[in-house]
Design brief:
Layout: H1 7-12, E1 20-22, E2 26-29, E3 37-39, H2 45-55, E4 61-63, E5 74-86, H3 90-94, E6 112-113, H4 119-129, E7 145-149, E8 152-159, E9 166-174, H5 183-197, E10 201-207, H6 211-219, E11 223-235
Parallel strand pairs: 9-10
Antiparallel strand pairs: 1-2, 2-3, 4-11, 5-10, 5-11, 6-7, 7-8, 8-9
């Protein structure tokens, strides 16, 4: 199995193990970092039992990749169809002069690194744009860049999953009032440039219905690798009551 067929598992059992909990057959990011979890390929009943122990009786978890449907101890409450794209052609789009820090956009600011101190502004932008889950500690994935209009954060993008050899571009968000200025394009290229400079290959996920974002990513050198399904699950018997369900994929 390719690492991108179970990217959460390979990220959590590899470069990002410090950001979650890992057992021999299951893994999950800390809930304030990301809703994603995973089980090892061809999971046994023990794997699902271990995942249930990590999630807890009041928690929820999002799975993706080649993960079979869970056994009777779980309820699936949300399914989102998506695509997985790999940026094998991004380096050619970037060209010999990578965007690292592109020229100012019009009279506006340049791209700037975002860190823990910027989380309140990042959460506000996510609330307005809903690019997917961004939680109080999501910034710990690293590699976030943003654009400000004055003091207000109006666009950002960063990194999420890092299965060996790859890194995911994620949280691509632009305030509606600032769309049409090429901000998403510059941010995605800059984040991808940082990934490529580490010797890794950028990839990303998008909602299958977000055709505008998919066209943008195709223009930047990303190609479709596979269809994916994101499955949000809770312990059986909890239904939908009393639980926020967060869409797990970027809206572009």
């Amino acid at each position: 199995m390719h690492v991108l067929d179970n990217p959460v598992w390979h990220a959590l059992t590899g470069p990002q193990s410090a950001l979650g909990t890992v057992t021999p057959r299951s893994a999950r990011f800390d809930p304030e970092v990301s809703p994603f979890g995973a089980v090892a390929g061809s999971p046994t009943d023990d794997a699902w039992t271990e995942l249930a122990a990590i999630v807890g009786p009041t928690g929820q978890v999002t799975l993706t990749g080649d993960t079979p449907l869970p056994p009777s101890g779980w309820d699936v409450v949300v399914r989102i169809e998506g695509v997985q794209m790999v940026g094998d052609g991004v380096a050619a789009v970037i060209g010999p002069e990578p965007p690292g820090q592109p020229p100012a956009i019009g009279s506006g600011p340049r791209l700037e690194p975002l860190a823990a101190a910027d989380v309140p502004d990042m959460l506000a932008l996510v609330a307005d744009t809903r690019p997917g889950p961004f939680l109080p500690r999501t910034v710990e994935f690293g590699g976030y860049l943003g654009v400000r209009d004055g003091t207000r954060l109006v666009a950002m993008a960063g990194q999420r999953l890092r299965p060996p050899g790859y890194a995911e571009v994620s949280a691509v968000a632009t305030d509606p009032a600032h769309r049409g200025r090429g901000l998403a394009r510059q941010l995605v290229l800059a984040v991808a440039d940082g990934i490529i400079r580490r010797g890794e290959v950028p990839f990303l996920h998008a909602s299958a219905g977000n055709t505008g974002a998919i066209r943008l990513y195709e223009s930047l050198g990303f190609t479709l690798r596979r269809q994916v399904t994101f499955v949000v699950m809770v312990p059986a018997g909890r239904g939908r009551a009393g639980r926020p369900i967060i869409p797990p994929v970027p809206a572009g």
